[in-house]
Amino acid sequence: MAGHKIAHAALKGPSVVKELVIGLALGLAAGGLWKMHHWNEQRKTRAFYDLLERGEIGVVVAEE
């Protein structure tokens, strides 16, 4: 029975460099998604005000 050894991964502490790289990657990904969302909202707002300025839409409900 002494000849049957099971290979176990040696447990080590957290890798600081790996943690920093993962954190940086996740932060950049989340920041990129937030910026894309922000640009999309700006585009919609700009389009609304352009239509409002041209008179194609109005914000007052038309009376019947």
Automatic annotation (TrEMBL):
GO CC, sorted alphabetically, is: mitochondrial inner membrane
Key word Transmembrane present: yes
Chief localisation class:
mitochondrion
UniProt subcellular location:
Mitochondrion inner membrane
Q: Which domain of life is it from?
A: Eukaryota
Q: Which PANTHER family match?
A: CYTOCHROME C OXIDASE SUBUNIT 5C-2-RELATED (PTHR34372)
Q: Give the similarity note.
A: Belongs to the cytochrome c oxidase subunit 5C family.
Describe its function.
This protein is one of the nuclear-coded polypeptide chains of cytochrome c oxidase, the terminal oxidase in mitochondrial electron transport.
**Protein known as:** Cytochrome c oxidase subunit 5C
Organism the protein comes from: Arabidopsis suecica (Swedish thale-cress)
